[in-house]
Design brief:
Number of helices: 7
Helix content: 10-25%
GO molecular function, one term: catalytic activity
CATH superfamily of the largest domain: D-amino Acid Aminotransferase, subunit A, domain 2
CATH architecture of the largest domain: Alpha-Beta Barrel
Strand order of the largest sheet: 6-5-4-11-10-7-8-9
CATH topology of the largest domain: D-amino Acid Aminotransferase, Chain A, domain 2
Strand content: 15-25%
CATH class of the largest domain: Alpha Beta
Distance between the termini: 47 Å
InterPro entries: Aminotrans_IV, Aminotransferase-like, BCAT-like_C, BCAT-like_N
Protein name: Aminodeoxychorismate lyase
Largest sheet: 8 strands, mixed
Organism: Aspergillus carbonarius (strain ITEM 5010)
Length: about 270
């Protein structure tokens, strides 16, 4: 059993943004799914609950799963007790152990246009472009790549191999599985322009790697798929082009513009 082989300090986690502006911007768009994932100041909270439930199920943590089955409104009340000032944005890190004990770490969130939390478009209000590298090594998919947990050493190693030494850097590295396919980013979900194939027409303009490639079933990924922004497609690392534009996303920063960097001389141009 997987749970019997885990270290005693192993926990499942999910990071998200608290932003009082969500109440206003959530009304600017019509949700395609129910419940509406943007109905609280906690960005995509129903998807974070689902992510944690899926992890608890995978590791057979019955007490944790029972706690996570609570109504979203009740979970909001619990999270509210950790917010120092409900007029400011915050970064929350929800951490849960096998006994169902839930801890919430809260830190000030980086200032940003709250519209970046919505699905991106060609007119999205962003001028910042992150450098996006491809890891030089392959990583085997496992329950630790599928679910977000405290076992994150391989993400840190991939970032260091790409020269990324701080979470404050506007840079990301894409993980690659043994088959040579893109799994995900070290802290984000990536999206690429659709590669049209013969006889294929219509559909979303963007694609993202399927979970079967080994990456994390992220919350913003869930949102992007549910709202029709993208579709799943296996993406070979060798298909990516130097200078290619892409999107990145996570539960704290929303959606971010990116550019593939294969030739390091391009770092001077971004």
């Amino acid at each position: 059993m997987i749970s019997d082989m885990l270290p005693p300090d192993f926990k499942i986690i999910s990071s998200l943004r608290y932003d009082p502006a969500l109440a206003a911007i959530g009304k600017q768009r019509a949700a395609k799914t129910s419940p509406d994932a943007l109905s609280t100041p906690y960005y995509l909270l129903p998807y974070h609950q689902e992510r944690l439930r899926n992890a608890a199920t995978c590791f057979t943590w019955e007490r944790a799963l029972a706690y996570l089955e609570q109504d979203t409104n009740e979970f909001v009340k619990f999270l509210d007790t950790f917010i120092p000032d409900n007029t400011k944005p915050w970064r929350l890190r929800i951490v849960m152990d096998r006994m169902g004990t839930c801890e919430v770490e809260v830190n000030p969130a980086t200032s940003m246009d709250p519209l970046n939390l919505l699905l991106p478009s060609d007119t999205s209000p962003q001028t910042t472009i992150w450098r996006v590298y491809i890891d030089s090594e392959h990583i085997a998919p496992s329950v630790f790549t599928t679910h977000k947990t405290t076992a994150r050493d391989f993400y840190t190693a991939a970032r260091l191999r790409s020269g990324i030494v701080s979470l404050l850097e506007q840079a990301e590295v894409l993980l690659v599985n043994p088959a040579g396919d893109i799994m995900e980013g070290s802290i984000t979900t990536p999206y690429f322009r659709r590669r049209n194939t013969a006889g294929e027409e219509g559909g979303p303009a963007w694609i993202t790697p399927p979970v079967s490639s080994g990456g994390n079933a992220g919350t913003t990924r869930h949102y992007a798929l549910a709202e029709g922004f993208c579709t799943e497609r296996t993406i070979a690392a060798t298909d990516l082009v130097d200078g290619e534009e892409c999107w990145l996303s996570n539960g704290v920063r929303g959606f971010i513009r990116g550019k593939i960097v294969l030739m390091r001389s391009n770092d001077l141009q971004t």
